[in-house]
Amino acid sequence: MLSIEQIDAFIATVDCGSFSAAARKLGKVQSAVSQNIMNLEIDCGIELFDRSGRYPTLNDAGHKLLPYARAVSMQHNRLSEQAFSLSRKELEPIILAVDEGLPLNKITPIICKLVESVPRVQVECLLASTADIIEMVQSGRATTGLIFGEYSVPFSLDFENVGAIEFDIYVAADHPLAQAVSPHIEVLSLHRQLVISSRNSNESSLHQLLSPDVWFSDSYAMLIEWCKAGLGWTFIPCYLAKQALKEGTLIPVPIEFEKISAISNVELIQHSSKSSDFAHKKLRELVKSLFEGM
Protein backbone atom coordinates (compact mmCIF):
# COMPACT_ATOMS: atom_id res chain seq x y z
CA MET A 1 0.00 0.00 0.00
CA LEU A 2 1.46 3.33 -1.05
CA SER A 3 1.74 5.91 1.74
CA ILE A 4 2.00 9.70 1.69
CA GLU A 5 5.35 9.38 3.49
CA GLN A 6 6.69 7.33 0.58
CA ILE A 7 5.40 9.84 -1.94
CA ASP A 8 6.84 12.80 -0.01
CA ALA A 9 10.22 11.06 0.25
CA PHE A 10 10.16 10.33 -3.49
CA ILE A 11 9.35 13.94 -4.45
CA ALA A 12 11.86 15.42 -1.99
CA THR A 13 14.63 13.15 -3.30
CA VAL A 14 13.91 14.25 -6.87
CA ASP A 15 13.78 17.93 -5.92
CA CYS A 16 16.84 17.86 -3.64
CA GLY A 17 19.01 15.48 -5.64
CA SER A 18 20.00 13.09 -2.86
CA PHE A 19 18.56 11.06 -0.01
CA SER A 20 20.50 13.08 2.59
CA ALA A 21 19.27 16.43 1.23
CA ALA A 22 15.72 15.08 1.08
CA ALA A 23 16.00 14.01 4.72
CA ARG A 24 17.10 17.49 5.75
CA LYS A 25 14.17 19.03 3.86
CA LEU A 26 11.67 16.65 5.46
CA GLY A 27 13.23 16.85 8.93
CA LYS A 28 13.89 13.09 9.02
CA VAL A 29 16.93 10.86 9.28
CA GLN A 30 18.38 9.67 5.99
CA SER A 31 17.64 6.01 6.75
CA ALA A 32 13.92 6.80 7.03
CA VAL A 33 13.89 8.50 3.62
CA SER A 34 15.87 5.67 2.01
CA GLN A 35 13.52 3.10 3.54
CA ASN A 36 10.44 4.96 2.27
CA ILE A 37 11.91 5.02 -1.24
CA MET A 38 12.72 1.30 -1.07
CA ASN A 39 9.20 0.50 0.16
CA LEU A 40 7.74 2.62 -2.64
CA GLU A 41 9.78 0.70 -5.21
CA ILE A 42 8.69 -2.60 -3.67
CA ASP A 43 5.03 -1.53 -3.79
CA CYS A 44 5.43 -0.39 -7.41
CA GLY A 45 7.33 -3.53 -8.35
CA ILE A 46 10.09 -1.58 -10.11
CA GLU A 47 13.09 0.60 -9.30
CA LEU A 48 12.52 4.33 -9.74
CA PHE A 49 16.11 5.61 -9.43
CA ASP A 50 19.38 4.83 -11.12
CA ARG A 51 21.84 4.44 -8.23
CA SER A 52 24.97 3.74 -10.29
CA GLY A 53 26.31 7.29 -9.87
CA ARG A 54 27.20 9.36 -6.83
CA TYR A 55 23.63 10.67 -6.58
CA PRO A 56 20.35 8.92 -7.40
CA THR A 57 18.76 9.97 -10.68
CA LEU A 58 15.29 9.20 -11.97
CA ASN A 59 15.02 6.39 -14.50
CA ASP A 60 12.22 6.12 -17.08
CA ALA A 61 9.79 4.57 -14.59
CA GLY A 62 10.54 7.31 -12.08
CA HIS A 63 9.88 10.03 -14.67
CA LYS A 64 6.50 8.46 -15.48
CA LEU A 65 5.51 8.22 -11.82
CA LEU A 66 6.65 11.73 -10.79
CA PRO A 67 3.72 13.83 -12.13
CA TYR A 68 1.22 11.47 -10.49
CA ALA A 69 3.14 11.65 -7.20
CA ARG A 70 3.11 15.45 -7.31
CA ALA A 71 -0.64 15.45 -7.99
CA VAL A 72 -1.30 13.12 -5.04
CA SER A 73 0.90 15.24 -2.74
CA MET A 74 -0.89 18.42 -3.75
CA GLN A 75 -4.33 16.89 -3.21
CA HIS A 76 -3.22 15.52 0.18
CA ASN A 77 -2.11 19.02 1.20
CA ARG A 78 -5.44 20.47 0.09
CA LEU A 79 -7.29 17.78 2.05
CA SER A 80 -5.26 18.57 5.18
CA GLU A 81 -5.83 22.31 4.77
CA GLN A 82 -9.58 21.82 4.28
CA ALA A 83 -9.83 19.55 7.33
CA PHE A 84 -7.92 22.11 9.40
CA SER A 85 -10.11 24.96 8.19
CA LEU A 86 -13.27 23.16 9.36
CA SER A 87 -12.11 23.47 12.97
CA ARG A 88 -11.08 27.14 12.76
CA LYS A 89 -13.39 29.64 14.39
CA GLU A 90 -11.31 32.79 13.79
CA LEU A 91 -11.48 34.74 10.54
CA GLU A 92 -8.34 34.57 8.48
CA PRO A 93 -6.69 37.98 7.89
CA ILE A 94 -6.61 39.02 4.24
CA ILE A 95 -3.25 40.08 2.86
CA LEU A 96 -4.00 41.37 -0.62
CA ALA A 97 -1.09 41.93 -3.00
CA VAL A 98 -1.94 44.00 -6.09
CA ASP A 99 0.08 44.63 -9.24
CA GLU A 100 0.69 48.38 -9.33
CA GLY A 101 -0.41 48.45 -12.97
CA LEU A 102 -4.00 47.64 -11.98
CA PRO A 103 -6.57 50.38 -11.15
CA LEU A 104 -5.86 50.97 -7.47
CA ASN A 105 -8.73 53.45 -7.13
CA LYS A 106 -11.14 50.50 -7.41
CA ILE A 107 -9.55 48.48 -4.61
CA THR A 108 -10.92 50.58 -1.73
CA PRO A 109 -14.60 50.27 -2.80
CA ILE A 110 -14.09 46.51 -2.92
CA ILE A 111 -12.64 46.51 0.61
CA CYS A 112 -15.53 48.71 1.83
CA LYS A 113 -18.06 46.19 0.51
CA LEU A 114 -16.06 43.36 2.07
CA VAL A 115 -16.16 45.05 5.48
CA GLU A 116 -19.95 45.39 5.17
CA SER A 117 -20.21 41.61 4.77
CA VAL A 118 -17.38 40.64 7.15
CA PRO A 119 -17.09 43.45 9.75
CA ARG A 120 -14.33 41.78 11.80
CA VAL A 121 -12.00 41.06 8.89
CA GLN A 122 -8.43 42.37 9.04
CA VAL A 123 -6.90 43.60 5.78
CA GLU A 124 -3.35 44.36 4.68
CA CYS A 125 -2.62 45.58 1.14
CA LEU A 126 0.73 45.31 -0.64
CA LEU A 127 1.87 46.62 -4.04
CA ALA A 128 4.33 44.64 -6.15
CA SER A 129 4.92 43.29 -9.64
CA THR A 130 3.05 40.22 -10.88
CA ALA A 131 6.10 37.93 -10.62
CA ASP A 132 6.77 39.03 -7.06
CA ILE A 133 3.12 38.61 -6.08
CA ILE A 134 3.08 34.99 -7.26
CA GLU A 135 6.04 34.27 -4.99
CA MET A 136 4.43 36.19 -2.10
CA VAL A 137 1.20 34.16 -2.29
CA GLN A 138 3.10 30.91 -2.73
CA SER A 139 5.25 31.62 0.35
CA GLY A 140 2.31 32.83 2.47
CA ARG A 141 3.43 36.47 2.70
CA ALA A 142 0.18 37.31 0.91
CA THR A 143 -3.05 35.33 0.92
CA THR A 144 -4.55 36.78 -2.27
CA GLY A 145 -3.04 38.40 -5.34
CA LEU A 146 -4.34 40.44 -8.27
CA ILE A 147 -1.97 39.95 -11.17
CA PHE A 148 -1.58 40.21 -14.92
CA GLY A 149 -1.86 36.83 -16.64
CA GLU A 150 1.65 36.97 -18.08
CA TYR A 151 3.26 34.24 -15.95
CA SER A 152 2.34 30.63 -15.35
CA VAL A 153 0.69 30.12 -11.96
CA PRO A 154 1.99 27.22 -9.80
CA PHE A 155 -0.40 24.31 -9.27
CA SER A 156 -0.36 24.97 -5.51
CA LEU A 157 -2.32 28.21 -6.04
CA ASP A 158 -5.98 28.64 -6.93
CA PHE A 159 -6.65 31.18 -9.67
CA GLU A 160 -9.36 32.54 -11.93
CA ASN A 161 -9.66 35.19 -14.60
CA VAL A 162 -11.47 38.32 -13.39
CA GLY A 163 -11.04 40.73 -16.30
CA ALA A 164 -8.66 42.23 -18.83
CA ILE A 165 -6.57 45.37 -19.29
CA GLU A 166 -5.44 46.90 -22.60
CA PHE A 167 -1.77 47.81 -23.06
CA ASP A 168 -0.17 50.02 -25.70
CA ILE A 169 3.22 51.50 -26.54
CA TYR A 170 3.71 55.17 -25.68
CA VAL A 171 6.37 57.80 -26.22
CA ALA A 172 6.79 61.51 -25.42
CA ALA A 173 5.20 63.88 -27.93
CA ASP A 174 8.61 65.37 -28.79
CA HIS A 175 10.45 62.02 -29.03
CA PRO A 176 11.88 61.04 -32.47
CA LEU A 177 9.47 58.08 -32.61
CA ALA A 178 6.55 60.53 -32.45
CA GLN A 179 7.67 62.64 -35.39
CA ALA A 180 6.66 60.26 -38.19
CA VAL A 181 4.74 57.06 -38.83
CA SER A 182 7.22 54.18 -38.75
CA PRO A 183 6.86 51.43 -41.36
CA HIS A 184 7.43 48.50 -38.97
CA ILE A 185 7.79 47.64 -35.30
CA GLU A 186 11.52 46.93 -35.59
CA VAL A 187 12.13 50.69 -35.37
CA LEU A 188 11.54 50.38 -31.61
CA SER A 189 14.87 48.56 -31.25
CA LEU A 190 16.68 51.76 -32.24
CA HIS A 191 15.44 53.59 -29.13
CA ARG A 192 15.67 53.04 -25.37
CA GLN A 193 12.98 50.81 -23.88
CA LEU A 194 11.50 51.49 -20.43
CA VAL A 195 10.35 48.24 -18.82
CA ILE A 196 8.50 47.22 -15.67
CA SER A 197 10.51 44.67 -13.71
CA SER A 198 10.12 42.33 -10.77
CA ARG A 199 12.42 42.46 -7.77
CA ASN A 200 13.59 38.94 -8.60
CA SER A 201 14.20 39.82 -12.29
CA ASN A 202 11.87 37.11 -13.59
CA GLU A 203 11.15 37.55 -17.27
CA SER A 204 7.66 38.42 -18.47
CA SER A 205 5.92 37.17 -21.62
CA LEU A 206 4.07 40.50 -21.82
CA HIS A 207 7.04 42.84 -21.37
CA GLN A 208 9.52 41.44 -23.86
CA LEU A 209 12.82 43.20 -24.39
CA LEU A 210 12.95 44.57 -27.94
CA SER A 211 15.77 47.08 -27.59
CA PRO A 212 19.43 46.55 -26.63
CA ASP A 213 19.17 49.70 -24.47
CA VAL A 214 16.77 49.00 -21.58
CA TRP A 215 15.99 50.82 -18.33
CA PHE A 216 13.98 49.06 -15.60
CA SER A 217 11.67 50.18 -12.80
CA ASP A 218 9.23 48.30 -10.59
CA SER A 219 6.83 51.28 -10.78
CA TYR A 220 4.58 52.18 -13.70
CA ALA A 221 4.41 55.73 -12.34
CA MET A 222 8.17 56.03 -12.74
CA LEU A 223 8.04 54.60 -16.27
CA ILE A 224 5.45 57.21 -17.24
CA GLU A 225 7.59 60.03 -15.82
CA TRP A 226 10.67 58.76 -17.67
CA CYS A 227 8.65 58.42 -20.85
CA LYS A 228 7.20 61.94 -20.56
CA ALA A 229 10.77 63.22 -20.13
CA GLY A 230 11.71 61.71 -23.50
CA LEU A 231 13.99 59.02 -22.05
CA GLY A 232 12.48 56.22 -24.14
CA TRP A 233 9.31 54.34 -25.08
CA THR A 234 7.27 52.11 -22.80
CA PHE A 235 4.51 49.48 -22.88
CA ILE A 236 1.92 50.27 -20.19
CA PRO A 237 -1.79 49.88 -19.41
CA CYS A 238 -3.79 52.30 -21.55
CA TYR A 239 -5.83 53.67 -18.65
CA LEU A 240 -2.61 54.82 -16.94
CA ALA A 241 -1.71 56.92 -19.99
CA LYS A 242 -5.09 58.70 -20.27
CA GLN A 243 -4.09 61.84 -18.35
CA ALA A 244 -0.79 62.22 -20.20
CA LEU A 245 -2.60 61.72 -23.52
CA LYS A 246 -5.10 64.40 -22.55
CA GLU A 247 -2.25 66.75 -21.65
CA GLY A 248 -0.45 65.96 -24.90
CA THR A 249 2.73 64.81 -23.15
CA LEU A 250 2.45 61.21 -24.39
CA ILE A 251 1.20 59.67 -27.63
CA PRO A 252 0.86 56.07 -28.86
CA VAL A 253 3.83 55.18 -31.06
CA PRO A 254 2.57 55.46 -34.68
CA ILE A 255 3.30 52.24 -36.62
CA GLU A 256 1.96 51.95 -40.17
CA PHE A 257 1.15 48.27 -40.67
CA GLU A 258 1.12 46.66 -37.24
CA LYS A 259 -1.24 46.90 -34.29
CA ILE A 260 0.97 46.99 -31.23
CA SER A 261 -1.62 47.22 -28.48
CA ALA A 262 -2.45 44.05 -26.55
CA ILE A 263 -4.96 42.74 -24.04
CA SER A 264 -3.66 41.15 -20.84
CA ASN A 265 -5.88 38.98 -18.69
CA VAL A 266 -6.16 39.90 -15.03
CA GLU A 267 -6.20 36.98 -12.60
CA LEU A 268 -6.98 36.55 -8.93
CA ILE A 269 -4.77 34.03 -7.16
CA GLN A 270 -5.16 32.62 -3.66
CA HIS A 271 -3.21 30.20 -1.56
CA SER A 272 -5.15 26.94 -1.45
CA SER A 273 -5.20 27.03 2.36
CA LYS A 274 -7.25 30.25 2.25
CA SER A 275 -9.71 29.47 -0.54
CA SER A 276 -12.38 28.00 1.74
CA ASP A 277 -12.20 30.85 4.27
CA PHE A 278 -15.43 32.88 4.26
CA ALA A 279 -13.76 36.31 3.95
CA HIS A 280 -11.51 35.14 1.13
CA LYS A 281 -14.45 33.64 -0.75
CA LYS A 282 -16.35 36.92 -0.35
CA LEU A 283 -13.33 38.85 -1.63
CA ARG A 284 -13.26 36.68 -4.76
CA GLU A 285 -16.91 37.45 -5.44
CA LEU A 286 -16.38 41.20 -5.07
CA VAL A 287 -13.22 41.37 -7.19
CA LYS A 288 -15.07 39.98 -10.19
CA SER A 289 -16.89 43.32 -10.46
CA LEU A 290 -13.61 45.26 -10.39
CA PHE A 291 -13.15 45.53 -14.16
CA GLU A 292 -16.76 45.89 -15.24
CA GLY A 293 -17.09 48.85 -17.57
CA MET A 294 -13.36 49.35 -18.09
Automatic annotation (TrEMBL):
CDD domains: PBP2_LTTR_substrate
InterPro entries: LysR_HTH_N, LysR_subst-bd, WH-like_DNA-bd_sf, WH_DNA-bd_sf
Residue ranges of every copy of the HTH lysR-type domain listed in the record: 2-59
Claim: Repressor is one of the keywords in the record: no
Domain of life: Bacteria
Alphabetized GO MF terms: DNA-binding transcription factor activity; transcription cis-regulatory region binding
UniProt keyword annotations, A-Z: DNA-binding, Transcription, Transcription regulation
PANTHER family named in the record: HTH-TYPE TRANSCRIPTIONAL REGULATOR, LYSR FAMILY TRANSCRIPTIONAL REGULATOR
Family membership: Belongs to the LysR transcriptional regulatory family.
Name of the molecule in the record: LysR family transcriptional regulator
Organism: Vibrio gelatinilyticus
